[in-house]
Amino acid sequence: MLTNDELLRETVATKKKVIFSTGMSTAKEIDHAVDVLSKAQNDYNAWQKIGLLHCNSSYPAPVNELNLSAIKTLANDYPLFDIGYSGHEMTLGTTVSSVLLGAKIIERHITLDRNMEGSDHSCSVTPWGLFKLVSGIRELEQAYGDGEIKVTETEKPIRAKLRG
Known about the structure:
The chain has 164 residues and is α/β, with parallel strands linked by helices.
């Protein structure tokens, strides 16, 4: 509903966080929605209440059409927003990877059975899949590091033994 100006204005009027997906949208449509939101808001702090999720709205979304790099594009174009990812693909690794690219919000559909009827059950995650997804994201956050090249604490005794 990113192109529904009236809905965008009404949503902002609730003064609650607005999180919207960019699925099926062009850059021009996203810019227009942001313009509508900005005109509907009265203060700078309101930008802290905006979430913008990169998305491919196919069910399931083909991995080669996910364009996860668009997360960085959105973060560049809208630095005051919380940028995230709404995943409709069959896998979990791509959603975990979105965090590495800067996603601060993750949205995935949940189902009890991926074989149920309906357009999105096959690409939804089961409760166990949700546990694996969150675990994968937490593992990535721990592994990310600070980028400084150094000998780690656990490498020091091995280094002493192997290098003398």
